[in-house]
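In response to reviewer comment 3 from the previous cycle, which asked for concrete evidence that the modeling workflow produces usable outputs, we include below a single protein chain processed end to end. The sequence was submitted unchanged, and the resulting structure tokens are shown without manual editing.
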Amino acid sequence: MADIPINPLVVIGVGSSFAFSGLFYHLYQEKKKELEKLKEIPVFKPDQHLLRVLRATPHKRLQYVAVEGLVQADGEPLASRFVPRCFGVIQKIAVEEHWKYWNSLTKTWNSRTMNRKETNNSVPFSLVSPGAYMTDLYVKIQNPLEASGFYLDRVYYNVRHAEGGLVNVVLQGLNGEKPEAMEESEELLRVGSTLTGFGEVVLEGGQVMRLQAPHDGRKYILEPTDYRSFMDRHERSASLWKMLTAVTGITGASLLARILYGLVGNRDDRSK
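The workflow returned the following structure tokens.
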């Protein structure tokens, strides 16, 4: 058996393929469990149906549900600093400087970021059903900055490159540094955008509904999309892990079959 050549790269390929197949299968199973839990979450809109359910529920509370609606400011919305006639309810503005410094060891200019400044603003807002901006039915969003999720939309991004001049020459000569660029960006949760919130809904008084962080330890989430699109994204992720499990498993099995076929063929040749 020792004189039968086996390509070590093929052996490594077999082991790696089966290892990755096992990893992808584990990720697929985890995503599948997550999907099953997501499908168990009741989904509502800010309408009479949700209000009736809350009124019929003990303590006027739903522990963990999804609420899908359009963003509406409770008062005056935030105006974009850079984009005309663009309004939101949560705003993040970031400014940072890019500098170059001289590395005397490598004799090259290297870049670094410094003096980053970030400003966050928000105003109270609610979710309303499409076409119902003037309705009395809405779901107030409590403490949205505490929620997880990437729900801000970038509305402005600009990089202003530093101009060469006497000041830059002086700085470069004094400390081996020179400004390179100034980067500015603005992100908004825009008025009128679709938002799906996952959390606890409570009824205050007889009409005011509020979405807040759940008390049972589950995540308080805001997603910048409708519920169906949110589920489609998770289903595509599960399908991806399933496909990768099959591809790597088949690849490993094919390589293993090739090794075994070679071993059997060599043994038959020697027996002749």
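The longest helix spans residues 227-271. We consider this sufficient to address the reviewer's concern, and the full set will be provided in the supplementary archive.
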